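HUMAN: Now follow token order:
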Amino acid sequence: MNLPNKLTMGRILLVPLFVAALLIPFPMHTLVALVLFVAASITDMLDGKIARRKNLITDFGKFADPLADKILVLAALLCFVQNGWCDCVAVIIVIFREFTVTSIRLIAAAKGEVIAANMWGKVKTTTQMVAIIVILMMYALIGILAAVLPPSAIYDLAAMRIWLFVIGEVLIWISTVFAIISGVIYVVQNYHFIADK
């Protein structure tokens, strides 16, 4: 297994640690989750660059890299729903999009074709990761403030949480719009794999 593929597998292996850090309450757990998610996002940037620069592009990488992105992003979004940081509607749309795209990829693979991610898919993933990182940063900041501020400031933190929810929703919906656009383009470009002949 070459280095880019190892980085991709490393991203997948970071997901359970990220989920545990996000859902298990311990001091500064959201900050730990943020660090893990950023580390996983960095592997996403590196694996593609290394693969292209050193001509290490493989069919496994074309398939596993977008799959690793989906696992990481969906894990984060589902944890956000669990924590009450976003509503489930946008997440359901994203899941529907990912199942549709993955199904087409599997059909293409069964026909001996490997479909690499296109530009719109990369834009979708980037906007999702940026949204998730910003949301994690905001809630990590709340966690730090809750640890250092006096109990009298709890009311102010509760008010901040409302604004954080609104900002997070806007960011998630922006990334969801890109998910819809990229999903539609993906289906149109690869419809021949599922069209009856």
